[in-house]
Amino acid sequence: MGVKVALRSYRSKLQAAFVSLGMAAVAVTGWESSETAGRALRDATYERLTAIAETKRREVERYFQDVANHVIALSSDESAIEALEQFELAWPTIPPMRAGQDVSLRGEYAALPQEWYPRDPRVQTLQAGWLASNPHPAGRRHQLLHTPGLGKYGDVHARFHPTLQRYQAAFGFYDTFIIGRQDSRILYTVTKEIDLGVRLEEAPYDKTSLARLAVRALQLPEPESFVVEDYEPYLPSQSQPAAFFGAPIWRRGEKIGVLAIQIAADELNRVMTSEGNWRGEGMGETGQAYIAGADNRLRSEQRSVTGGGGAIARKPGEASAILNAVVPGEVADSIRSGRSGTHLGHDFRNVPVLRSHVPLNISGLDWTLIAEIEAAEALRPIAVLRSKLLAWSLGIALIVLAAATLLARSVTRPVLALSAAADRVGRRDFDATLPVPSDDEIGRLAISFNRMMEDLKRTTVSKRELEVMAARLISVAEDERARIARELHDDLSQRLAAAAIELGRLQQGAPVQRDDLTRIKAQVVGLADDVHGISRRLHTSTLDDVGLTAAIEMECRSFFERGGPPVEFTVEGECDGFGRDLQLALYRIVQEALRNIQRHSGADEVSVTLRRTTEGAALDVRDNGRGFDARDRNWRRGVGLASMQERANALGGRCTIESGPGTGTRIAVTVPIETTIASDDEKATSAAGRRPSNRPGGPPRPA
User: Fold this and answer.
1) Strands 341-346 and 227-234
2) Strand, helix or coil at 98?
3) Measured by CB atoms within 10 angstroms of the end CB, which terminus of the chain is less buried, N or C?
4) pTM of the model
5) Where are the beta strands (DSSP E) in 252-360?
6) What percent of the chain has pLDDT over 90?
7) CATH 3.50.30.10 fits 77-267, yes or no
8) Helix (H) or strand (E) holding 366
């Protein structure tokens, strides 16, 4: 009963896991797809807004550059120069207005403050003729070419007005002014408003942007220069926003006056709003482009005025957004950086918008062009995509649940068999095996379980093998001691006794011959060499004398002299700087490997490669001998192979032995870098006792 309950729980967990994974995969994929699509769409919208802003920027800059070029060209034109001179000469011929004759003129100023009414009688006469008595209404007063009663001024006006009026109409200017230098008097205008004839240095005109422009223009030191005044309400033009461009008029190297051009907001709006064709400009239903000045107020109309949704707050009752509407604070903060940029922000209704802004390069004007569109419109396809993803997610969840149920039932059946076999293993019954029902994951699990049982049985037997190996190590050590004892007794002892007899004979007074001394000396030298050889076999000093590279090379040569095949020895990198323990381990591994090759392999090709790597030291010994099969049940690992692996393991390294019948044997040893660095004391000791080596490394060479 407990097993069935456990299986039902396991089945429920499996179903829940599959459904959770499926839903997680769908959720992650859907979220990633949505985010990627959202980023791509936002980036595309930003690029589109930036492209629109850049296009508008070039159009606006080109328009104002054209205005600047026109004002410079017109101020340098001979007709403008002559017109200024002739209007100045004609001005004194205008008869002053007599008291009581200005009734009609005062009607023009009825809605204006009293201070704006001209006090100069000649100005009153001039304005009465061109404003009050003009048969054409305001806005078309320029159609009057001549009016009587103005002295020579009317003749001069009739001569120059057609040329200046055609120039203004051709380029869409609001008005053109000719201003004298001596008293800053507006001698001529095309449009004919209440500023005609007034002196700009007198109140209230001295506070206007046109007066500032005239003063700045007369301060320009060079021809071909101009000044500009930003948009401000200009009362003579019904307080509409007006910008002015001006340039000095030169005659024989002297400034004699100023030519000014008034720019109304309509022409700038035409460029910015594309004459209301927002959709055709790629701005959709809610997009717009507008210009903000240094005071964060608009210099062009917004879409809420020209048609469509708005994005700029405006005071109630204001007829125009220009100079009245203020951009949101976050826009002001971003555009003040002076660089182009894009960001996600909010308009005055707190509606999210995607926005791009670029600074305008217009001399004398600190303007920024802004293009934006509501985020809901720009990202509308993302909302549609998310709805579709949600519907697909629910459908996939149902499919995954059904598949998980079927799969859980197929998996839980063989789990019972696996549980029973595991119980047998718990009772140390290593003969337990599972049938392999199929070639799927469950079948591979059964195969793995059966292989694990075989490994457990082999591991249990390996304890006896360790005991046998330990006994063999003891036996080998005892045999080596017996061999050394026999060598000392049978050889060295007899030779020492012979030398002692010779010396005793000489001590008893026997005649001393030179040949006797030579023979005794040779015996002593031979004894010393044999003792040294035994010592070297017990503990080699070659490493201390010549270093690791030369010691291995000598061992390879000695191997060949003992009857083995030639050894191809290769060194890569500086290997004599390894620590003392590592050098001894590598040297002993080479000794043991060559000894095994000579005893067991029957090889005729042997190679030894020693190299220094970024990780540490690496040793590779290969032969083409008969090899062996480590998987053979009758094969037993010898003492030599075990000692090589133990030496590598003791230093934190690894010794890998690869062999096969008839394919030779490869022994690969690697030791980490931290164990290969010799201490300063070891390096000093090694350097002091080592003989110079002419070949510490280099290309492969036979030993």
Assistant:
1) unpaired
2) coil
3) N
4) 0.54
5) 254-264, 288-292, 341-346, 352-359
6) 29
7) no
8) none
